[in-house]
Structures are given as C-alpha cells and as structure tokens.
Design a protein that fits this description.
The complex is a heterotrimer. Chain A is an alpha/beta fold. Chain A has 14 helices and 11 strands. In chain A, strands 1-3-2-4-6-5-10-11-9-7-8 form an 11-stranded mixed sheet, with helices on both faces. The radius of gyration of chain A is 21 Å and the shape is globular. Chain C has a domain at 1-39: Orthogonal Bundle (Histone, subunit A), CATH 1.10.20. The two termini of chain C are 36 Å apart. The chains are: A alpha/beta, B alpha+beta, C alpha+beta. Chains in contact: A-B, A-C, B-C. At the B-C interface, strand 2, helix 1, strand 9 and strand 10 of B face helix 1, strand 1, helix 3 and strand 3 of C.
Chain lengths: 465, 477, 95
C-alpha cells in the first residue's frame, strides 16, 4: 500500500478505476498519513472512512472552506469550534466528482499572511526544512501535499496564497481566473480577489482537480465557470508559443531564485518557445493597490464576527460596545487586526478616494498592462516568490517585508487572470517556483505549457521519504 | 405664536421604506415572515454565516422597476449595490447591502412632489427587549429575531417639495395608494411594511436657501406623521424665535405625549464607509425587463381620479376617494359597467353607504355583487324605494346577498303608494290638531311633527320631501 | 501618516479594543504600510475608470422561489447566548 505515496492523484484514480485498489483502501491509506502529520499542517483529520469514498483520492481542504458538520475556523480563534450548517460549493463539487474530504488544513488566519505564522492554531513547518515557513496563506495545504500527508489539496489565493506556498514547498499551485470556481462557502477575505484552486503534486493533477472544481454556481453571482471543459495537459513542445518574462531584474529578487528562473527560460527555448522581456509598468504598484483593496474588503467581510450568532464571544463586557470590542480584540490575531485597521482607515470618510478609489484605478492600469502584454505574448512568466522559504520568525516583526513576498503574485488576482506556479529547481537546497500567467480563461493552455516544462525540468517533488 | 414666528415656511421631504411583497428575501431563498415564531425564517445567508454570498431576487428588481416607472423616474442603465457598514445586532453582516451613488431609479414625480431617487436594499432584523439578563447583574438584554432580516425594501426619497404637515401626509397617502394599487407591497404602516421618515426644516418665507434639517424617524401612521411634523415645525419656530439654532439630529415623535425626543446615540457620528459590493454584479435592466415592468403597471390612483372626474364628472373628493381606495373604485366601476345611468349617485352610495357598512374592508369580500348595488341605486333613483329603506336593503344584501327587489318585497320595504300615503297623512293631520294650528299660524317648523308621524307610520318607506309636499297640499298651503 | 487619535478612531469604527501596547505600536506600523501604499500615487491615473469587478457579468438574478429555511435549533446551535428562541445580546444603548 505504501507505494500509493509516490503516485500522483491521477495515477491513483486510474488504479481505483481499474479495480486494483478500492476507494476505501486509498482513503484509509491517506487518512493514516494525515493522522501522522507532525508539521502542523492539519487542524482536523477525518476519523472515519466514508461508506463510499469515491473514485478519486481524498482531498485535504484548507480550513477556510465550510464543510457541513466539520470544524471550519479559517485558522481563527474567533471561529474555534464553529460547525458550518452547509458545505462550500467547491468542496461539494469535489465530493461529487469522487474526492472525499480527508481533513482541514492549517492556514494564516482568514488567509491573511504569506508564511502561515498568522494561524490562530500555530505555525506550519516546511517539509524541506522544518525551521522554515511553508509560505501562506495556504501553508497547511502546501506542506501536506509536499510532505505526502495528502495526495492533493485545495487552497485559496487572494494575492498569492496558493502559488507562493506551492512555490516554497516545491509543488504545483493554480489560481484560476476570477469566477471560474464558486466562492460560495469559502470564508471571505477579499471578495473581489479570492479564488479557490488546486495544490497538487504535478500539473496533470491540477488540471484534473480544476475540472472538478470549476463551474457556474447559482449561489455565487460572480461565478462563471470556464467556457470550455478543462483538457488534461499533453504538450511535449512549446513551439510557436511566446513567453514574456517579467521581474527578473527586480531589486528584491534573490539571485539564486533569479538564476533558477533564467535556466527555466532556457528550457522554454529548448522546447521551441520564444522568450522576450516584457514591461508591466503598473504591476510594480500591485502591492500598494492590493494592500488597500484587500484590507478594505476584509474590514467589511470580517465585521460579521461579532459574538452574536456563532463563534467566540468574550466573557468580559458590561454593554454591547464592550461585547463587540472585546470579542473582536480577543478573537482576532495581530495581522488580522492590522488589516482591519488599514481597511477601515482606507474606506473612512475623507480617505476613500485617496486610497480605495486610487487602488481600484491601479487595478484597471494593471489589467491594461496585462492586456497589452497578451497582444505580444501568450504567457507572462515570473518567479513566483522573490525568495525561497524563509526562516520561521524571520519576517514576523516587519509586516511590510512580509507583504513584499507577494510582489510577483499580486498583480494577477488584481487583474482577475489565472496563473500557475510550478517547481523549477532548487536554490540553497530549497524549491523555487516558476509562475506562468495567461489571459482570463486560458487555464487549459497555461497548464499545457506548464506540463511540457514540468516534463523537461523533472523536479523530484517529495522531500520526505 | 406671534406674527413674526408665523413668517417661517416649513420645508419637508420624506423618505419612505416599503417592504416588497415578494415571496422570498432580497438575497436568499427564505420566505418572508408574517408573524412566525422567532428565527424560523433564516438560513446561512441571512444569518451572515461565514462564506455565504448574496444573490439578488429578480422579483424585487422587477417591483423596483415598476415603482420607478410608476413614479416617472429615469431607470439607471446600470446600477450597483454598495455595502453600508455599521455594527448593530440587527445587522448580521455588520453591513447593509444598499444602493448608494448609482440607484436603480432617479428623478420622477408623484402629484406635485418631485421624487429624488428610488433604490433597493434589505431590511434589518428585529430586536426584542428581554429585560435583565442573568449574566450581568442589572444589565438589560435584548433578543434578536432574524425573520425580518433581508426582507426586500425599496426606499423612495422625495425632493424637499412639501410645505406643510398636511401636504406631507396627503402625499404619503397618495404614495401608499399607488403602491397598494400596484400590488408591490402590503403598505401596512402599523405592521411596518411601509415606514415613513420626514426631513423637516424651516426658513423665512421668501428665502431660497434651506435651513438646518432634522429627521423624524419611523412614524407609524400618516396622522402621526402630520402631528409629528407639526410638532417639529413648532419646535423649530420657537427655537428660532428665542434666538436659538437648529441642530441637525434625528428625532422620535411620541404620539401619545405629543413630544419629540432626540435619538442621538452616545457612540460617535456614523461613518458608513460605503464601497461597491464585490459579491454582486451590476443590474442593467434589459428592454425585456422594462417592457415586463411597464406591462405590470395598472392604472394608478392619480390617473384614475383624474379620469373619474373628467369622464364621469364626479366631484374631486369623491373621485379621489374611489381612487385612493382602489378596492372601492374597482367595486364602483364594476357596478357602473352593469348600469351606467347614475354615476354620481352610485359613487355616493359607494363611498358613503357602502363604506359605512364595510369600514376599511373590501366590499368585494361581502355577499353584495357590484351589479346588485347598481340595481338598488337605480331603484332609489326611480323612486321605487326610499333612500332610508334602501339602506336597510343594502345591509341585507351585504350580509346575505340576493336581489334588491326580492328583499324589498320580503321585508315590505317598497315605497308607500300615493293612496296609502294619502290615508296616512290624513290620519296624521287628524291626530295632531296642535301642530296643524301652528302651521296655519305661520310656524313652518311645526310641519316636522307631522312628517315625523308619517315616517314612523311608513317605517321609512316614504320620502320626507314628498310627505311634506302632500301635507302642505292637504292643508291648502 | 496615521496618528494615535486616528488609530483610536479607526479602532472604534472597527470595534476593536486596543491594548496599550498596540496603541503604542500601531501608529508607526500602519504609517509605514500606508507610506508604501501611497506610492501608487506615482502612477498617472488620469481618466482611468476604477475596477469594481473583474468579471463582465450583469443581471445575475435569482427566481423568487422559496428554499427551505433552517430549523430554529440549527440556526441557534452555535450561538454564544440564546434566550426566548433568539440570539441574546446586551441591549443597545442600555448599560
């Protein structure tokens, strides 16, 4: 049975389909693996094997997703013990496709963070180096897949929360086009940016999972699904495809990471693709716009945690105001409070235009930059993260330094376009992620290109025996 | 009040919140609540559970468009929702989804009053005071019931075109009648399906600029609205007369005490931090949606009143009453369709005799058929039955139905014949020599005693005027 | 720049009680972030429309058809304080 550990989800699905193993055996194997997690990746693991676990391997689900009757806390103490009365559409879609819920994975509280150190339930260790962060906010999902305690996982990406931890843990992470996957039941951080997507061992698994996840949902007014069914990737060459490289000369980019990414550009050319440098003149301001838009939306999205209907209520209060203020002060962690403060300030009377209004215009500029780029090239490629996994505690004292971890991943959600991160090599013995972004709804093409590259790179994805 | 004080002119605008009569809530599929047990009409969406998303009710948009079209508004080619942020236990998301800078409809007019805007939003939950809670000694607690939370609302805001409390109440009644006629709301003020706030200021007569306004909240009848505005205008006049200044504030009118109290909260001034609702996409009414909304509009009260006045020559007040209470107008016009000979008399019977019997109810809910009323009125007109006897017949028809002629026959209410009446008059003259003498002496009022005697004898089956004429003839006057 | 008074004001709007330590730290910390954010003013945004939605959708509407509500026990199941079939809170305005 232990040979399941080395197999991709797609291969396991084939074994189930051929009758070589049963869905129950596969589930049981992974349940055992998840129960042995010692990285802090899981917040909850299913204890019972479902009667009919389905024809796909089970999936590790970020704590941000509501699953009926299963603790779903968004990594926050304010929702500790909260048991949803309904299941997120994305999770339901996976269940209907045959992937049962294996467990709930750790994350930065309300998806706010790039290291998973902002979890209300403790940090997650990077399986490549336990002294380092797995990235965030979907750090638990990324670490579980990398460590082989989950065959695959779902996460959410608002400014890089799937791609950056995938990069730091040496796995594949895909942020779909905004609207491709329903947000219903995904606990909201920044509603105009949040998207659900796969964190997987390889590109084929990402396509397989996207196929199950995507779709228009009547419960999400902003969902569209994908216009065409997701095809499983098969490209071996990149002939005729043009790749626009962005950001390799950026000041904050680690030289080791730059080097590995440059080698990846060479491989693109070896496979017949064309590489050119491109300009995204406004994308460098993505962090600024992001750290206005996301906190502003979050300040409203997180206002519902008030100790009235569910979740934590402070025992210390004399009146309504005291109940609100103490409940929220005690229930939220530092980073969440910081972002609520920034967001509230940015929306407050007299500051709206200067911050929120301006940031929404910057979004338009960034979208224009991408549109112009896609006139010249098929894909925009960048490093996913400016650095490899950093040490636990290294950036917690400096929020701005932490925010800059999202430099390369923030422009895509601001423009609503899809992007994948694939592992492209090691620097200082740690994985480096390579990001491929395309126009809205180009997921299948992005994954095809990623697949061809993945075959050439031949990254060994499992750090732990 | 001194003459100087009376030189101020009130400037009033009103804001009306109407609960729409859809089946489900604004952004979720919960049915609307009509007095169900608390918290039995809720779901994760209207309880603002983590991860939920709103989806707009198409019928609420349809009703909103109908209202906009009825008020002659311009429909926004594309309008959006905003989040209005504030913490309060009746607001589960701690923001209300409402419309802000781009409402569904702008401009428009009803009667002489310009409409500023019409927009869609959601209602809040209800807080019920629960007395002292056990947990904190002496502290008061409330219980939140989310049944009402998320009920679709339309807010209608007028321009400050009203110049008196009476005008404001009159406009409110017209708007209420209009909305009721359209069937988009129950418009019941006592139950809160229609709620009125008034913005009140005063200014020296002839001055163009406005004074500082105050807001009167939630008056639950138009009578209270009128009295509340009167009280507030008087308060402002007095304040200015004493050399004071008006503070911008929100006031509550207590109709029992006739007093106004400020609702200023101890928490700081509101900063609603409006921003576009990212969970909803723009509403851009299509031609199809507009055609459907237009087609759903019935003839509205103002137009109906004008038509009844013009085509049937009804007095203005009568036409208005038949139009504002469209159930009366409908009954009337159905009756008129059966017999169109006596439009005014039929109208009077409808607004006087019929309403005296059914009160605020709908005459269509009684056993009386509209053509039957027309027949009865025609019999009165043809003097087959006296007016007072016809009232008795009407009571029977309302309670039991049937045909007027049969009721008259069965109850002996037919008009007394000339011969019978002559005998009765003769008898009255013989029985009342005192009165006869007085009449002959020139005391005309004394004839009343004779008429009364005849009417008693005929049990109202005779016409008073006719009886009087006959008495005079017999006395040779 | 955001000063101590503004931090207090924003904390009240956000219904967050700040500790003395947070009140010391936040003005500097938030100002540093806001300074970085304000760099977006370097861009020429003349005539640029703000993005409110990245998807081009409109008129996403739901038919007015009822769906089952939650049984009351389920609606109240996670509530910190329940009384009289509802969610109990300290009365607004009362102390």
């Amino acid at each position: 049975m232990s040979d399941l550990l080395g197999l991709t989800a797609a291969t396991q699905a084939e074994l189930i389909a051929s009758g070589e193993v049963s869905g129950a055996e596969v589930f049981e194997f992974w349940r055992g693996r998840a129960a042995e997690d010692d990285l802090g990746a899981y917040l909850w693991v299913e204890e019972e094997t479902p009667a009919d676990p389905g024809r796909l391997p089970p999936v590790a689900v970020k704590d941000l997703f509501c699953v009926e009757g299963v603790p779903s806390s968004a990594g926050s103490r304010i929702l500790e013990g909260y048991l949803p009365v309904y299941t997120a559409t994305s999770v339901r879609n996976l269940q209907e496709a045959g992937a049962a819920v294996l467990g709930k994975t750790n994350q930065d509280e309300f998806a706010m963070g790039s290291s998973n150190e902002n979890s209300g339930f403790g940090p997650v260790q990077n399986p490549w180096d336990r002294g380092r962060v797995p990235g965030g906010s979907s750090g638990g999902s990324a670490a579980a897949v990398a460590a082989g305690t989950a065959p695959w996982a779902i996460g959410t990406d608002t400014g890089g929360s799937i791609r950056q931890p995938a990069s730091l843990c040496g796995i594949v992470g895909l942020k779909p086009t905004y609207g491709a996957v329903s947000r219903y039941g995904m606990i909201a951080f920044a509603s105009s940016l949040d998207q659900c997507g796969p964190l997987t061992r390889d590109v084929t698994d990402a396509a397989l999972m996207l196929r199950a996840l995507e779709g228009r949902d009547p419960c999400d007014s902003t969902s569209l699904g994908l216009p065409e069914a997701v095809t499983l990737p098969s490209a071996e060459r990149l002939d005729g495809l043009r790749f626009g490289a962005w950001g390799l000369a950026e000041e904050g980019l680690d030289p080791g990471v730059a080097e590995v990414c440059r080698r990846t550009l060479d491989r693109i050319e070896e496979l017949g693709g064309g590489v050119q440098e491109i300009e995204l003149p406004s994308a460098g301001h993505g962090i600024s716009a992001y750290y206005v838009v996301a906190p502003a939306e979050a300040s409203a999205n997180l206002a519902r945690y008030d100790g009235v209907r569910y979740g934590y209520r402070s025992p210390h209060y004399d009146d309504l105001l005291g109940m609100y203020e103490n409940t929220r002060a005690e229930g939220f962690g530092e980073e969440v409070k910081r972002r609520i403060m920034i967001g509230t300030y940015a929306l407050s009377s007299g500051y709206y235009e200067a911050y929120y209004g301006t940031a929404q215009k910057v979004r338009s500029k960034i979208a224009q930059d991408f549109a112009a780029a896609f006139e010249q090239v098929d894909f925009v490629v960048t490093p996913t993260s400016p650095t490899v996994a950093f040490e636990l505690g290294e950036r917690t004292a400096d929020p701005l330094a932490m925010y800059l971890s999202d430099y390369f991943t923030v422009p895509m959600p601001l423009a609503g376009i899809p992007a994948v991160s694939i592992p492209c090599g090691l620097s200082e013995g740690l994985p480096v992620g390579f990001q491929i972004a395309g126009p809205a709804f180009s997921e299948s093409r992005i994954l095809d290109a990623a697949y061809a590259l993945e075959r050439t790179i031949g990254f060994e994805g499992v750090p732990v025996p | 009040m001194t003459e100087a004080v009376r030189q101020y002119e009130p400037v009033i605008g009103i804001e009306i919140h109407v609960q729409l009569a859809t089946r489900t809530k604004m952004f979720c599929g919960c049915e609307l609540s009509f007095g169900e047990e608390p918290n039995t009409r809720t779901c994760p969406v209207c309880l603002a559970h983590p991860g939920v998303l709103p989806v707009t009710n198409a019928e609420a948009v349809h009703f909103g468009l109908m209202i906009g079209l009825a008020l002659g508004c311009e429909i926004a080619p594309s309008s959006i929702f905003h989040r209005k942020n504030y913490f309060y236990p009746d607001s589960p998301k701690a923001y209300q989804i409402s419309q802000y800078d781009i409402p569904l409809c702008t401009g428009g007019r009803l009667g002489d009053v310009r409409i500023h805007r019409v927009h869609l939003e959601e209602d809040a939950a209800k807080l019920v005071h629960a007395g002292s809670s056990g947990r904190i000694h002496g502290a008061e607690s409330s219980v939140v019931d989310f049944n009402r939370c998320g009920t679709p609302l339309v807010e209608i805001v007028t321009e400050p075109d009203l110049r008196s409390a009476a005008e404001a109440a009159e406009f409110g009644r017209l708007l209420q009648a209009t909305l009721r006629r359209m069937g988009v709301s129950d418009v019941n003020m006592e139950e809160g399906s229609l709620r009125v706030d008034a913005n009140v200021s005063i200014r020296p007569a002839g001055q163009a600029s406005f004074g500082t306004k105050t807001e009167l909240k939630n008056m639950n009848s138009f009578r209270f609205l009128e009295r509340g505005i009167e009280a507030e205008v008087a308060r402002q006049e007095q304040l200015l007369a004493e050399g004071g200044t008006i503070q911008q504030e929100t006031l509550h009118f207590d109709p029992e005490a006739g007093s106004l109290t400020s609702l200023r909260s101890k928490e700081e001034a509101h900063d609603y931090r409006y921003f576009p609702e990212p969970d909803l996409v723009p509403m851009a009414p299509t031609e199809e949606m507009l055609v459907r909304a237009r087609a759903a509009l019935p003839e509205l009260p103002a137009a109906r009143a004008e038509r009844l006045e013009r085509e049937l020559e009804l007095p203005a007040d009568t036409a208005k009453l038949l139009s504002f209470r469209s159930e009366l107008g409908d009954f009337y016009e159905t009756a008129l369709a059966a017999d169109s000979d006596h439009p005014r008399r039929l109208a009077n019977w409808t607004i006087n005799e019929l309403t005296a019997a059914v009160g605020d109810g709908d005459p269509a809910d009684t056993k009386l058929e509209p053509p039957v009323l027309a027949r009865l009125v025609a019999m009165v007109a043809d003097k087959q039955v006296s007016a007072s006897a016809a009232r008795e017949v009407l009571a029977v028809l309302i309670a039991k139905g049937g045909d007027p002629a049969q009721v008259i026959e069965a109850q002996g209410l037919g008009r007394a014949g000339e011969e019978e009446l002559g005998d009765i008059v003769d008898r009255a003259i013989a029985d009342n020599p005192d009165a006869v003498e007085k009449i002959r002496a020139g005391k005309q009022q004394a004839i009343g005693a004779l008429v009364g005697a005849v009417m008693r004898e005929t049990k109202g089956r005779a016409d008073g005027g006719e009886v009087q004429q006959m008495i005079r003839a017999k006395l040779g006057e | 720049m955001i000063d101590r008074d503004q931090v207090l004001h924003v904390a009240r709007l956000s219904r967050l009680r700040l500790t003395d330590e947070e009140l010391e730290r936040m003005p500097g910390e938030l100002s540093k972030i806001l300074d970085h954010v304000e760099k977006m003013d370097e861009l020429d945004l003349e005539g640029i429309e703000p993005t409110t939605h990245v998807v081009e959708l409109q008129n996403v509407l739901r038919e007015d058809v009822p769906r089952p509500s939650l049984p009351r026990e389920r609606a109240l199941a996670g509530a910190p304080d329940v009384a009289d079939g509802g969610f109990r809170v300290p009365s607004p305005g009362g102390s």
